[in-house]
Amino acid sequence: MTRKQRFMNACRRLPVDMTPVWIMRQAGRFMQSYRKIRARHSFIEMCKDPDTAATVTLLPVERLCVDAAIIFADILLPLEGMGVGFGFTEQNGPVIHRPIRTLRHIDALKTTDPHESLDYVLSAIKLVKRALGTETPLIGFSGAPFTLASYLVEGGHSQNYLTTKAMMLRAPGAWNKLMTRLSETVLLYLGAQIEAGADAVQLFDSWAGCLSPPDYEAYVMPFNTRILNGLKKYRAPVINFATDNAGLLRLMSSSGGDVIGVDWRIRIDQAWELIGHSKAIQGNLDPAVLFARTDEIKRQVKTILGMTAGRNGHIFNLGHGVLPTTPESHVKALVELIHELSER
To answer: Is 25 an annotated catalytic residue?
Structure first.
């Protein structure tokens, strides 16, 4: 069975020869080969140069033998085409130059064709697809509307998202307009990625876990549902992921997607019960486990595989992105252990 067959079968809850694995942020700072490329370019230069983005995307497939590639990009890239300026700092990550906090700011946002504003991502996808051939699948992705909105309103990362929640709760008209504009942008972007060759896509709602279930259901879920329903026509598997999402899993499952991504704050068997076995599941090793000895990594992999009990539809992943200082040898060992311990 090829990696592509293995991954796509798991997304569709069909039999596999072993549990497929890929890792969020698998093309990143923990890899020495990535750091060599990064030393010559800024992060945004790497994203915007299709050749460099394609090279970085392929690194973990070649070195780690993961079962899927994920395009090298950033969740904030669609915002530039909407007229939003942003940059990246080493200490605080993304920074929005002019936060969006009024109806006037929202009205000024543009809706653009991703084939024009994000052509470099689509070009990178085409390059990667040519390199991968039919052996390995490629995953595209985008930030979800709430996560993008939180960056826009807060001006960057936040501990409590007070400014975002204030707009959501005090100015629902402005909030709905912002989320509508973002959901339109994300749907067009993910659709364009599939058309360019992505075999599957992931919706990253990185910060949705800061919300109560009632607020998620009222202020976020309708917009994610619009995107997930809109992607059905492409017939490509969609992964619906959020961090700290144990309290949101039933709602996330109802909102759509073929695979629900789960972080490490809940047992994966309990998560699957909440999601329902009519959907596939992705997860859910704590990224910190990769700093442990190999025997402990093996123990925790066996625990997760034991909880899924060989049921069709499990894609192994971390509960969030691999941490920058993770030993590369431990990541490679993880992939090998998953394949060895799950072989049917």
So the answer is: yes
Residues 6+ apart with CB under 8 A from 42: 88
Helices (H), 12-157: 32-38, 43-48, 50-64, 77-81, 103-107, 114-117, 119-132, 145-154
Instruction: pLDDT tens for the chain, 344 residues: list them.
Output: 999 999 999 999 999 999 999 999 999 999 999 999 999 999 999 999 999 999 999 999 999 999 999 999 999 999 999 999 888 877 667 889 899 999 999 999 998 899 999 999 999 999 999 999 999 999 999 999 999 999 999 998 888 999 999 999 999 999 999 999 999 999 999 999 999 999 999 999 999 999 999 999 999 999 999 999 999 999 999 999 999 999 999 999 999 999 999 999 999 999 999 999 999 999 999 999 999 999 999 999 999 999 999 999 999 999 999 999 999 999 999 999 999 999 99
Q: Which of 3, 6, 13, 25 is catalytic?
A: 25
CA separation for the pair 114, 132 (Å, rounded): 23
Pick the catalytic residue: 17, 29, 49, 119?
A: 29
- Which string of b and e fits 94-126 if b means at least 16 CB within 10 Å? bbbeebbbeeebbeebeebebeebbebbbbbbe
Q: Active-site residue 151, yes or no?
A: yes
Where are any strands of DSSP class E within the chain? Answer: 69-70, 86-89, 93-96, 138-143, 200-205, 238-242, 259-261, 280-282, 314-315
Candidate list 151, 161, 189, 219, residue with the active-site label: 151
Choosing from 38, 250, 265, 267, which is the catalytic residue?
38
The per-residue DSSP string of 112-148 comes to --HHHHTHHHHHHHHHHHHHHTTTS-EEEEEE-HHHH
Catalytic residue selected from 13, 34, 63, 74: 74
Go through the domains of the chain in sequence order and give each one's CATH number: 41-59+68-289 (3.20.20.210)
* Residue 12 bears catalytic tag: no
| 6 included as an active-site residue | no
Nearest 5°: CA angle at 302, between 301 and 308? 95
- Residue 234 annotated as catalytic: no
